[in-house]
């Protein structure tokens, strides 16, 4: 059976787990956060594609006015704004790449794709800048068939032509297209140890054409975000930009650039084969 790497929760009930551990403050906070769509999605479905896309979309919502207020406060937290920065980095890097290769036959891949907002918005920005995308094929790779159905609908509704889906495990070479020119993978590294992350980088490296670009991300530890992740029982791997660069160079990438977002929390890796 394929493994969903972001599903790290062990307890059948988070409130019961908090009570057993005597975390009364955590239980009260959990109850308050339940009104927020963002927090509830995080608690119920670990680090799901809906959780990530809620942050990328950046529109507060909840069960009632208090829930929407809480949701807005969460979206305004530095750790959450930093989380969104990885989407913005992927979107903008893709737009830049498409403009540089305007008119060329290209294969673009997002893995795992979730809701492919970075592909949709990156392509839209490139078109606004005059890029010819008529020969570009976009691919979304994900393990969850339901996600792929939603990704296909989202792409179609938002004008992303030539979007193809691939159901498979990001750590299996057979999941990937034969060739790719640009691959983005954000939000997966946090759920992989160094060994598995090295495997992911190797799987990405193989289909990239010479000169192809790979964009990925990592996260640094911050006290408040770590506390909320622990309540949701999400266990993540923290890495700085330097560590991401080391792993990319060990894979064989010729040019590696790793930096931090403006808040110094998200690490953004851009590597060229």
Features:
273 residues, alpha/beta, Rossmann fold, seven-stranded mixed beta sheet, globular
What's the layout of helices and strands?
Layout: H1 14-20, H2 24-33, H3 37-45, H4 49-57, H5 65-75, H6 78-100, E1 106-110, H7 117-128, E2 136-142, H8 145-157, E3 163-167, E4 180-185, H9 194-205, E5 208-219, H10 223-231, H11 241-251, E6 255-260, E7 266-272
Parallel strand pairs: 1-2, 1-4, 2-3, 4-5
Antiparallel strand pairs: 5-7, 6-7
Helix pairs in contact: 3-4, 6-7, 9-11
Describe this protein's structure:
By secondary structure, the chain is α/β, with parallel strands linked by helices. It folds into two domains: 14-76, no CATH class; 81-222 and 236-272, Rossmann fold (3-Layer(aba) Sandwich). The protein is built from eleven helices and seven strands. It has helices at residues 14-20, 24-33, 37-45, 49-57, 65-75, 78-100, 117-128, 145-157, 194-205, 223-231, 241-251, and strands at residues 106-110, 136-142, 163-167, 180-185, 208-219, 255-260, 266-272. It has a seven-stranded mixed sheet with strand order 3-2-1-4-5-7-6, with helices on both faces. Helix 7 (117-128) links the parallel strand 1 and strand 2 (136-142). It starts with 13 loop residues before the first helix and ends with a strand. 44% of the residues are buried.
